[in-house]
Design goal:
37% of the residues lie in helices and 15% in strands. The chain has two domains: 258 residues, Crotonobetainyl-coa:carnitine coa-transferase, domain 1 (Rossmann fold), CATH 3.40.50; 73 residues, no CATH class.
């Protein structure tokens, strides 16, 4: 089956999460993704537990369908090999701090001079310009500076750390993908590549279009727990059930709220959906007491009828794979392990009717494809052995 990106060659210098997740999607759709790694340690995530068959489960999730080229870019020979690869590649993804690639002679201007069609995607914490361009940071810092973290809690609580890497994945990987696909489309028209500057902090800020609109329109400064979608409304909230589990109520539209009130036999709450704060707190208290009268499963059964009211259980991650909606959609894939058995992985979440994502090969061992790629570049067996002896590969 043909992939949407068959024939596309991608050089992946990313490590850990943002860059590799970006190139994973490209690889799942047919691109030849060459993961360029240091011959001495490779991608740091290779050593992060938990382990499966002596390999990192994290590495397996992020690097299926890729090739691995071990290459020491701190040597002249390594730089020469990389430049030769870049000359015939379509996309490059890196996640170093600004100026690192320039210092190696492998920055965008250097590579565009030999390959004007190259699309060069640089994912960094704060972007290529500004006083923070060289500043170290992690996901929590990026969403903190972007204002996302300040909104993540109830009104009377301090900010709550998200359980997922918002800045890394959504602010970095996904915006990088968007930019790459836009640049590929632009290249169809112009014949030229371009430089893509992806800031994980700015990518996180892009999650706040409604909040920024509120602020710009003089609607007040958005505060945690006070937005209609962040805890202010009783009809859009999370409640604890009688067995200590949680349930989500998202009856935001009047018809869903009316349906909910009918099902739980609380008709007096219908007119209080958009009441002032004090009344909202009273309704929240009443609903909190109500939800504690039944177990989660009992509530699920009560709301399983044909009448929509936007009530769903808060599932633990180990329960998600068994949910009938997830099973029907084949959201997870069973990736075969080297020594038999399977590892459950998250597949590509979008369903393309003609060019679906494909699982083609397991993640590569460090340097697994080095010899084959160098032979493709014209290196002989003797030359490859010499490069090994010099610590280039």
């Amino acid at each position: 089956m043909q992939g949407a990106l068959d024939g596309l060659r991608v050089l992946d210098l990313g490590r850990l999460l943002p860059g590799p997740y970006c190139t994973l999607v490209l690889a799942d759709h047919g691109a030849e993704v060459i993961k360029v790694e240091s011959p001495f340690e490779g991608d740091y995530v290779r050593k992060m537990g938990p382990m499966i068959d002596e390999d990192s489960a994290y590495f397996w999730q992020l690097n299926r369908n890729k090739k691995s080229l071990s290459l020491n870019l701190k040597t002249p020979e390594g730089v020469a090999i990389f430049r030769q690869l870049a000359e015939g590649s379509d996309v490059l993804v890196e996640s170093f701090r600004p100026d690192v690639m320039d210092s190696l002679g492998l920055g965008y201007k250097d590579l565009a001079a030999i390959n004007p069609r190259l699309i060069y995607c640089a994912i960094s914490g704060y972007g290529q310009q500004g006083p923070f361009r060289h500043r170290a940071g992690h996901d929590i810092n990026y969403i903190g500076l972007a204002g996302v973290l300040s909104l993540s809690a109830s009104r009377k609580s301090p900010p709550v750390m998200p359980a997922v890497q918002l800045a890394d994945v959504a602010g970095g990987s996904l915006w990088g993908l968007v930019a790459i696909l836009l640049a590929l489309q632009a290249r169809e028209k112009t014949g030229r590549g371009q430089f893509l500057d992806i800031s994980m902090m700015e990518g996180s800020l892009a999650f706040l279009p409604l909040q920024v609109a509120q602020l710009s329109a003089g609607g007040g400064i958005p505060r945690r727990g006070e937005g209609i979608l962040s805890g202010h409304l009783a009809c859009y909230n999370i409640y604890e059930t009688g067995d200590g589990r949680c349930i989500s109520l998202g009856a935001l539209e009047p018809k869903f709220w009316q349906s909910f009130c009918r099902i739980v036999k609380k008709p007096h709450l219908v007119d209080k959906q958009n009441a002032p704060r004090e009344t909202q707190e009273e309704v929240k208290k009443e609903l909190a007491e109500l939800f504690k009268k039944r177990t989660l499963q009992e509530w699920v059964e009560l709301f399983s009828g044909e009448e929509d009211s936007c009530v769903e259980p808060v599932l633990e991650l180990d329960e998600v794979a068994d949910h009938p909606q997830v099973q029907e959609r084949e959201t997870f894939l069973d990736a075969p392990l080297k020594n038999g058995g399977f590892m459950k992985q998250i597949g590509f979440p979008c369903k393309l009717s003609s060019t679906p994502a494909r699982y083609r090969k397991h993640p590569p061992a460090l340097g697994e494809d080095t010899a084959a790629l160098l032979q493709e570049l014209g290196r002989s067996g003797v030359e490859i052995e010499e490069l090994k002896d010099k610590g280039v590969i």
